[in-house]
Design brief:
alpha/beta; Rossmann fold; seven-stranded mixed sheet; two-stranded antiparallel sheet; 4 helices; about 25% helix; globular; EC 6.3.3.2; nucleotide-binding
Length: about 190
């Protein structure tokens, strides 16, 4: 299936899910993350959800990271790129024009220092290819990271068999966590 068709399909599927169900499934995803071999690292990049688009609520995952004293990095969209800020007690968040909560400013962290990235997505396939919102923010960001950065998608849904229009610059996931299963693509 084409990315544009998948975006439409999964947007419609998300709209049918209650906020309560998303919260329950997000908690299951956070707990499932504890099964991954990723907890010896220091720098974890995580997105904050666009609640209006019924994204995975990463607050549970954020709690796990903070409870384990990890350095949590949040993205901010600027001129077609992501800038990365360390989450501290002083971090102020503001919702941007796309309703994405993001840090106003703070301590910038270079992409090559980030070791694990939790990635938002609309859909993904059995090879780890993902469909985002189509703006390329995460593909450009991941190209700036070290080649061994661990890329983890979070999804309420199972994978598609194949995304037909995968591009050369698309960077596949290493894992995708759903409420019931962890998919490994390495």
């Amino acid at each position: 299936m084409l990315k544009s068709d998948l975006r439409l399909q999964y947007s419609q599927l998300r709209n049918q899910i209650s906020l309560e169900k998303i919260s329950q499934e997000s908690l299951l995803i956070a707990n499932k993350s504890l099964e991954l071999p990723i907890w010896n690292f220091s720098y974890y990049h995580i997105f904050l959800p666009i609640l209006g688009k019924k994204e995975i609520d990463t607050v549970f995952l954020l709690s796990i990271l903070q409870g384990r004293d990890k350095n949590v990095i949040l993205p901010k969209m600027e001129r077609g790129s992501l800038i990365h800020y360390l989450l501290t007690d002083n971090t102020k968040l503001k919702t941007n024009k796309w309703n994405v909560p993001e840090p106003v400013d703070g301590i910038q962290i270079p992409p090559n220092k980030i070791e694990v990235v939790f990635i938002p997505l609309m859909a993904y396939d059995t090879k780890g290819n993902r469909v985002g919102y189509g703006k390329g923010f995460y593909d450009r960001f991941l190209q700036q990271c070290n080649p061994d950065v661990i890329k983890i998608g979070l999804s309420l849904f199972e994978p598609e068999d194949k995304i037909e229009d995968v591009f050369e610059n698309d960077i596949p996931l290493d894992y995708c966590i759903t409420p019931n299963k962890i998919y490994s693509f390495s």
